[in-house]
């Protein structure tokens, strides 16, 4: 494959005696949408935390866009181009969708507006915030306080905030968690629109979403990579079926232990 946008070698993180990630190898091609699946406690959240810089590895290396980043903290990795959305909501509920987007753009823009006049800066911030809402399909909901948005819309807005810094890699931790089926479908459609434009690492329990979206799937079990392959090959992989997807050869949506 082309030079990976992100690669991890020997990535290891233990909590006491529990190896949450054990010698994880990962290589994401530019533009790829990679799903990471695995049973509860497999190490998926730990892996995204290690990649985002929220957790320090005990061992291993991470390269992103041609340089080693394991020594960088989360803020520096965000500046380097790694965006992150969270399982736990990170929105300001009393502010409108547009105000939340504006704040995210302001934070992401850092000092880049520092030498511009305030009015010009404000126009640019507003335009970018509106564009972000458009990207995630929330333009008609711009004036709605976040607390009044549906759960699915809040998750869409979180993606908009993660895009504010124009990341090259987007780390998404269970974007469909807690969603009604219709909301999940809207989220899958949103990720379909984003794919290719940004490299995505998607941790997800919803197997319908995973198999609809992923270019390749990495299966984690007990902190280790059991397999990385195309969706069809993962579906047919006997080890994966035994460990995670169930024995029925189906898509695992009903049988996955999550
Ligand atoms: N802060 C922590 N302290 C101690 N143990 C932890 C901590 N975070 C995670 N673990 C343990 O590390 C292992 C991996 O957890 P992790 O949350 O990364 O798994 P996961 O695949 O994301 O699970 P889930 O699907 O339930 O979110 C589990 O055994 C978990 O109990």
Summarize the SSE layout with pairings.
Layout: E1 6-15, E2 18-28, E3 33-37, H1 44-52, E4 59-64, E5 67-68, H2 74-80, E6 82-85, H3 97-109, H4 118-135, H5 151-163, E7 169-173, H6 181-194, E8 199-203, H7 207-213, E9 216-221, E10 224-229, H8 231-236, H9 238-245
Parallel strand pairs: 3-8, 3-9, 6-7, 7-8
Antiparallel strand pairs: 1-2, 1-4, 4-5, 9-10
Helix pairs in contact: 3-4, 3-5, 5-6
The structure holds adenosine-5'-triphosphate.
Adenosine-5'-triphosphate is lined by residues 15, 18, 20, 38, 40-46.
What does this 3D model show about the protein?
The chain has 258 residues and is α/β, with parallel strands linked by helices. Helices cover 37% and strands 23% of the residues. It has nine helices and ten strands. Strands 6-7-8-3-9-10 form a six-stranded mixed beta sheet, with helices on both faces. The chain starts with 5 loop residues before the first strand and ends in a 13-residue tail after the last helix. Residues 247-258 have low confidence and may be disordered. GO terms for molecular function: ATP binding; ATP hydrolysis activity. Residues 6-247 form the ABC transporter domain.
């Amino acid at each position: 494959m082309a030079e990976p946008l992100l690669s991890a070698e020997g990535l290891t993180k233990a909590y006491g005696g529990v190896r949450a990630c054990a010698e994880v190898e990962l290589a994401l091609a530019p533009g790829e949408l990679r799903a990471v699946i695995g049973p509860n406690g497999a190490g998926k959240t730990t892996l995204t935390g290690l990649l985002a810089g929220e957790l320090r590895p005990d061992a291993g290396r991470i390269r992103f866009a041609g340089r080693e980043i394991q020594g960088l903290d989360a803020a520096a990795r965000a500046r380097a181009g790694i965006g992150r959305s969270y399982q736990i909501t990170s929105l300001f509920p009393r502010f409108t969708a547009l105000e939340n987007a504006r704040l995210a753009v302001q934070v992401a823009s850092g000092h880049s507006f520092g030498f511009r006049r305030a009015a010009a800066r404000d126009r640019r911030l507003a335009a970018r915030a509106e564009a972000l809402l458009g990207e995630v399909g929330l333009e008609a909901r711009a004036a709605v306080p976040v607390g009044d948005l549906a759960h699915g819309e809040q998750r869409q807005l979180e993606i908009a905030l993660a895009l504010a810094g124009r990341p090259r890699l987007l780390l998404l931790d269970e974007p469909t968690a807690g969603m009604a089926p219709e909301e999940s479908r809207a989220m899958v459609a949103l990720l379909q629109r984003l794919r290719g434009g940004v490299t995505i690492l998607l941790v997800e329990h919803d197997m319908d979403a995973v198999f609809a979206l992923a270019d390749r799937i990495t299966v984690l079990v007990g902190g280790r990579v059991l397999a990385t392959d195309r969706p069809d090959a993962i579906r047919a992989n006997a080890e994966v079926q035994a460990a995670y997807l169930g024995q029925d050869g189906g898509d695992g949506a009903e049988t996955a232990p999550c």
